[in-house]
Write the structure tokens for this entry.
Amino acid sequence: MADKKKILVVDDEADVLTYLTTLFEDNGYETVSAVDGVEGFNVAKKEMPDLISLDITMPNQSGVRTYRQYKEDADLKDVPVIVVTAAGDPMRRFLKKLHMFPEPEGFINKPIDEEALIKMVAELIGQ
Amino acid sequence: MTTSVDIRNWIKNNFFDVAPMAISVIDTDFNIVYANNKFERMFGEWKNRKCHLAYKNSDSLCINCKGREAFSDGTSKVNEEVGHDKNGRFTRYLQHTIPVKNDKGEFAFLIEISIDITESDRIRKEHQLLFDQVPCNIMLINREFRITKTNKKIREMFGNLEGQYCFESLKGLDQKCKDCPAHLTFLDGRTHTGHSVVQDLEGQPIDLHVTTVPMDIENGNVDLVMEMGVDITQTLKLEDELKIAYSFMESMIAASLDAIIAIDEKANVTIFNQAARNIFNVSKHKQITMDELRTMLPEGFLEQISSGQGHVYFPEIEVETLKGDLVPVRLTGIQVIIGDTRRGMAISIQDLREIIQLEKDNLEAERLAAVGQTVAGLAHGVKNLITGLDGGMYMLNSGLRKSEAERIGQGLEMLTRNIKRISIFVKEFLSFSKGREIRVEPSDPLAIAKEVVDMYAPEADKLGIRLTFKKKGKIKRAPIDYDGLHECLTNLVGNAIDACKMSDNDERHVIVKAFESKEVIVYEVVDDGCGMDYEVKQKVFTTFFTTKGLGGTGLGLLTTKKIVQEHGGVIEVDSTLDKGTTFRIKLPRKRLPKPVGD
């Protein structure tokens, strides 16, 4: 169990942060967290996570802009991002239409289907 | 010599009977003793008759018998008489009565010569009647332009003008008119016409259409001209009024925003104005036929007009352009009846495309704002809440499974917190969705802003935020829901203070401005707080969108927007991330609602 995979959870809701970090940790991952977009980018640069779980509707820079930052960053652009949002399918379509960027590697609607999320994470970065 | 004897004989033997006048010889007892052929033809049988019986069918002597006078004074008389002809009809005749002496030198006989003037008298009377009663002015003018005779109509209008110069008496000029038609008739002996403005007895101008005809022509020279004038004052006035009314109507039709179409009694399309061309997509000079019009209008519409009374009205119906496109319109038609005669139809068409589009846009906007945003926001908010609850449940369950007291406690806390949030949301959402009807009363727009600023002053002071109120000029009272607008400004100022709280600047300001410009009341709430990025700006008026975590419900700005819209106003936002935000409420006076009880 030397190298646990590291997941960055970005969400402005403290309860969601608690929920997701606990869920990931219970499934054998190491977690770091950030409460808004700006922090989400800074923490990612510093921690270099294996995967990022990203909320969209956040103060202090939304998830959309943060996602762009990730994909524009040489170090982070290959880190898979799962967008976890309550914004639903319109947001998913919106993200798909951004020509300059690939669509996010994963998209999970809130309320969260725990099994689907864990399965998606495992597929992207392994156990 | 022989000749004169012959003539004398001829006169003696024949003259009496060939003479073209009735001749009778009467004795002192007024018996007719001799009469000629003409007499017999005029008055009939004469033998053994008294003169009064023959002439006048009377049994007694005439009251003013000229024969008796002639017998007594021995002089000839001439008199106009009325008698009866042989058929009993009145007859007029001019009678010469000549007394004749017998051998004894006594006046023993009368010779009466009667000339029938029945016909000429009738003509003369007719002429006089015509001259006086004809509905135009007639006068005779001599070469000096003096009026020699006028008819009754002229006397009534202008008084007695006979003997006066026509130009002087009718127009007050001292010489004949420049374009005198009488003058032309004197010159060339022909009929001339002209237009003349004269003044009647009351000094009112009268327009006359004048015709001059030559009357007495001697040796090729016209000595007298008959001038006939027809009063056309009323006609000209009517003509002018008609012209004005017509051009007025024409301009109205041309400028009308509604299509106007007219059809005459022969089913010709006589009016098809520009608005009609716009609706039906018809080029400017194309003449529209009745058949084409029939295809444009709803089936049976024209028949309905021509069969019915009053207006035929369709508040919303479709008409068809020549290209077959359907256009929604409001349609009215009426039959034009003048007197009892059908003179055609008039149709008016209002193009509803723009109105329908506006209504659609409005509905769409309202639907999006009220339903779309609310539902989308509601879903978003609810999903977040559920996620929070899910999180609490996960913590609780996994804590129970692992017997981790701390995790169980954390889970219970999360559940409690999110349930509390749900109750706040539900309460606020209910109050928002129920809303309240605004009640506008004449209010002082400045006082509202002042009150909100005063209310927040202690809190701002405590936070080290400089909250100021700036008013520019005066604002007249306006029909505003005082409490509603108070709530709007409370929301905006509250937000501005929150934005400042999130800013790291040492100096932070919130400025509330109120002023009126071009009949628009404007409120601005300006802060130099944290500002908003693009995504946040896009969502500020969305239900449940909040950047404040548990501190906000996301309903404040939506409520503010709703109240502003109910006042006919708009709310705008300018914001730059890290620089600050300005919210602006604009209330155009002419769109403000009517005060209650107005």
Summary: The radius of gyration of chain B is 55 Å. Chain B has a mean pLDDT of 85. Chain B touches chain A at residues 379-381, 383-384, 386-388, 390-392, 394-395, 398, 407, 410, 414, 417-418, 502, 530, 533-536, 539, 545, 547-549 (CB under 8 Å). Residues 184 and 192 of chain B are 7 Å apart (CA to CA).
